[in-house]
Write a structure and sequence with these properties.
single chain, alpha/beta, Spore Coat Polysaccharide Biosynthesis Protein SpsA, Chain A, 8-stranded mixed beta sheet, 7-stranded mixed beta sheet, 17 strands, about 20% strand
């Protein structure tokens, strides 16, 4: 064996008692100690953690205390090893003896992400000496807490994530996360902008999903979290505030509407549109961009870019850019659209087409980022009733004026209908001539 096959990265902050439990749990693994190593990634504790003497290689790496930086600590720990499989275990989550052997056996291919089964128990009085008896069935077991039903239901519904969709990231928890080094490095590790509890695991998993990773819940790889699930901790108001903090952080990076809602323009769009506007009239580009952005969380990147330049008609729109989309955008958008010349969509919006992607028609193709990463998903024809109309000779004043006129006519008709509903009929309201 040339080196450890698995590196266990344990983020830590000021909790030696729980760390001792985790490190003892790793000493009890059925996997041979030469097959794995452990990196304790300390997030600026006042005093360095003491790993003690262990049957496996273990080291401590540290970063300055700049607040809660679990994401950065995990990246630091991953950088301290070259093992091909990275196993992240929280500093309060004790692996059962078969944990590492089972996740190692389940790993498949360079783009693989696994999540173990996190169970919950009261380990507040459990000592390292107690673990062997508990796991071996010869000593007392701690009080067990309820396992999160929403996770169990999700894993059952998705065949342990094998049949998951774009919401797969929501069922990945960093406390029991396993990922190939190749995938970890491809997506760029954890996003270090997360500086409060929660969210960084979902964001990381979402990028892995979009990169085409295979997900698996390894349900027989069990690790025990010390304490109840988040849903059973703290007051409802404290939980609400914590969820909002996490949700607002996620909304910056996860483009799924379930994570960010709708109606707010974000720097990272859900849909990336590449529009070849070279040689096109500025008016045609403006009309095309307006059509492509309608009702869609999108960003448009222009090949030529005259309309988005300093004096261009689109220079004030933060959704319009020049050149190629940056890597951080492409890693997080769920859909990518190619438009070969300025066009207007009729009969559908870009958002409608993403619902049936991959699809393609004249001058336009809509693909899922995950499909592009996996090299799958031949495009189907555009749905019936959808047209892609070139905007090369558009007259903007006439188009805008006609649309406004049509809206005024619709409003006038609606006002007339409302008046007719409020006015009694002429028979009952008007006295007869003989009266």
């Amino acid at each position: 064996m040339s080196g450890p096959r698995v590196a266990v990265v344990v983020p830590h902050y000021r909790d030696q008692r729980r760390l001792d439990l985790v490190l003892t749990g790793l000493a009890l693994q059925t996997l041979h100690p030469a097959a794995f190593e452990v990196v304790v990634a300390d997030d600026g504790s006042p005093r360095a953690p003491e790993p003690g003497v262990r049957p496996y290689p273990v080291r401590v790496v540290r970063q300055p205390d700049r607040g809660f930086r679990a994401a950065a600590a995990r990246n630091l720990g991953a950088a301290a090893t070259t093992a091909p499989l990275l196993c992240f275990l929280d500093g309060d989550t004790v692996p059962a003896p078969g944990y590492l052997e089972r996740v190692l056996a389940a790993a498949r291919g360079p783009r693989w992400l696994g999540v173990g089964r996190r169970r919950h128990a009261d380990l507040s009085t459990t000592t390292p000496a107690d673990l062997a008896g508990w796991f071996g069935g010869t000593g007392p077991a701690p009080v067990e807490f309820t396992e999160p039903a929403w996770l169990r239901e999700a894993y059952d519904r998705t065949d342990d994530l094998r049949a998951a969709g774009d919401d797969a990231y929501r069922f990945v928890i960093s406390a029991v996360l396993v990922v190939t080094r190749a995938l970890f490095e491809e997506v760029g590790g954890f996003e270090e902008a997360f500086t409060a509890y929660g969210g960084e695991d979902w964001e990381f998993a979402n990028r892995c999903w979009l990169a085409g990773a295979d997900f698996l819940h390894v349900r027989d790889a069990v690790a025990w979290h010390d304490g109840p699930d988040f849903a059973d901790r703290g007051s409802p108001d404290a939980q609400r505030r914590s969820r909002n903090t996490e949700g607002l952080a996620l909304a910056r990076f996860v483009t799924d509407p379930a994570a960010r809602g709708t109606g707010v323009v974000r720097a990272l769009p859900d849909v990336v549109v590449r529009l070849d506007d070279r040689g096109a009239e500025e008016a045609a580009v403006v009309h095309a961009v307006a059509s492509l952005l309608t009702g869609t969380d999108a960003g448009v990147w222009l090949s030529g870019g005259a309309a988005a330049g300093p004096a261009g008609a689109l220079s004030d729109d933060p959704r319009v850019h020049v050149g190629e989309p940056p890597p951080e955008v492409l890693r997080r958008c769920r859909f990518q659209v190619r438009v070969d010349r300025p066009v207007e969509l009729s009969g559908a919006t870009v958002r409608d087409l993403t619902d049936v992607a991959p699809v393609a028609g004249p001058d336009l193709a809509v693909h899922r980022t995950r499909d592009l990463a996996r090299g799958t998903g031949l495009a189907a024809p555009l749905p019936a009733g959808v047209e892609v109309v070139p905007t090369g000779e558009v007259d903007l004043q006439r188009v805008w004026g006609r649309r406004q006129h049509e809206r005024e006519r619709e409003r006038a008709g609606e006002r007339g209908r409302q008046r007719s509903l409020r006015t009694p009929s002429s028979v009952s309201a008007t006295p007869s001539a003989s009266a």
